[in-house]
């Protein structure tokens, strides 16, 4: 690999008359940790779906792990990208046992369908659940978990196949303050791990940028407002243009803040 895990050139996605993404240019290197920020409807989920090899661009080209979407085997490619989102959670049957759900991710499945898993698979699945603080839930049906527990199980699942790219769509949505801060701490630890995959986390809030994240992509109305290293991109001008109101942007230690000006 040349170091680039994601490369989008002039990417557009259309549905009927709606342009969900327009002329998106974006590259992610293997050692980078990105946050994608923007208001509701900005196109963040659509962008992540392209990055996860689940949506093909209608215009332009997208390379995921050096494979061009539309030419590569998308099923194989999807199994090499870790992806956690509420859309993934919605497709998981309530009855799926948590440990089975995690280990089945090595095959790109959302539960067990009669495949045989080895001791190594079980060991890795248990270690990931333990790492994300949810090993006590391994035998529970997914449908019985709280929102915070689900989020952590989904991240563990997304890491199961040892991906080179990890995509998390709004991992902090629906969490209480303690749950959000716990997630921030765990994501900061992941960001700091040199063996961790390239990370892309979608959020609506600059307060949810974990310490150690390096880059930001700001989106509005399907277009990129700005992208690059955090310090250069998170200016008051850029963040105000992204969210469509005058904002004061600040830093409190390793965390970012934004308030209406
Ligand atoms: N199939 C579709 N047909 C028409 N418009 C669509 C379709 N799917 C999504 N959209 C629109 O595309 C826009 C971008 O949607 P997307 O879910 O990518 O935004 P988002 O930034 O993730 O939003 P949110 O923060 O609210 O989750 C929205 O205005 C949405 O209504």
From TrEMBL:
SUPFAM superfamilies: P-loop containing nucleoside triphosphate hydrolases (SSF52540)
Transmembrane regions: none
GO molecular function: ATP binding; ATP hydrolysis activity
ABC transporter domain location: 6-246
Family: Belongs to the ABC transporter superfamily.
PANTHER family: IRON TRANSPORT SYSTEM ATP-BINDING PROTEIN HI_0361-RELATED (PTHR42734:SF5), METAL TRANSPORT SYSTEM ATP-BINDING PROTEIN TM_0124-RELATED (PTHR42734)
Protein name as annotated: Iron complex transport system ATP-binding protein
Organism the protein comes from: Haloactinospora alba
């Amino acid at each position: 690999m040349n170091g680039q895990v994601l490369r989008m050139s002039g990417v557009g996605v259309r549905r009927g008359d709606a342009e969900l993404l327009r002329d998106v240019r974006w590259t992610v290197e293997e050692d980078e940790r990105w946050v994608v920020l923007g208001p509701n409807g900005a196109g963040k989920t659509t962008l992540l779906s392209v990055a996860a090899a689940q949506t093909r661009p209608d215009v332009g080209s997208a390379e995921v792990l050096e494979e061009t979407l539309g030419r590569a085997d998308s099923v194989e490619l999807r199994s090499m990208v870790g992806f956690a989102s509420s859309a993934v959670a919605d497709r998981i049957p309530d009855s799926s046992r948590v440990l089975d759900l995690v280990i089945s991710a090595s095959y790109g499945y959302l539960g067990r369908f009669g495949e045989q898993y080895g001791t190594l698979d079980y060991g890795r699945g248990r270690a990931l659940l333990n790492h994300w603080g949810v090993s006590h839930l391994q035998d529970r049906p997914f449908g019985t978990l709280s929102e915070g527990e689900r989020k952590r199980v989904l991240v563990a699942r997304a890491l199961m196949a040892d991906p080179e790219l990890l995509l998390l769509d709004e991992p902090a949505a629906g969490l209480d303050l303690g749950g959000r801060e716990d997630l921030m701490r765990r994501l900061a630890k992941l960001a700091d791990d040199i063996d961790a995959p390239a990370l892309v986390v979608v959020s609506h809030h600059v307060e949810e940028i974990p310490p150690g994240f390096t880059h930001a992509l700001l989106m509005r109305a399907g277009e990129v407002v700005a992208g690059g290293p955090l310090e250069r991109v998170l200016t008051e001008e850029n963040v105000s243009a992204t969210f469509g109101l005058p904002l004061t942007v600040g830093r409190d230690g390793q965390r970012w803040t934004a308030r209406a000006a």
